[in-house]
Fold this protein.
Amino acid sequence: MQLLSLSLSDNRILVSEDRDYGELIFRDAQRAVGVVLAKVAEFDGSPDRVAAKIVATLLQLSNGLVGQFTVIEPGKIRQRPLPEPPTRH
């Protein structure tokens, strides 16, 4: 959760292979600029090839990552808008 808070305070997209961020965002209503879940274990190839594929996808999506929860899998990209932050009274 510290990384999520840090990425928000630095106005950065969080890129991780940790599936727990989906739970923090959608169940626990944590805020984020954008989150990318890279399902690294599902890719074939050397770590360098996998990293190159993920970086190429990030560059392709570019500004389309802001406000989105993005999942990168081999041959498939899914995006879901981040929930609106809860209103404070």
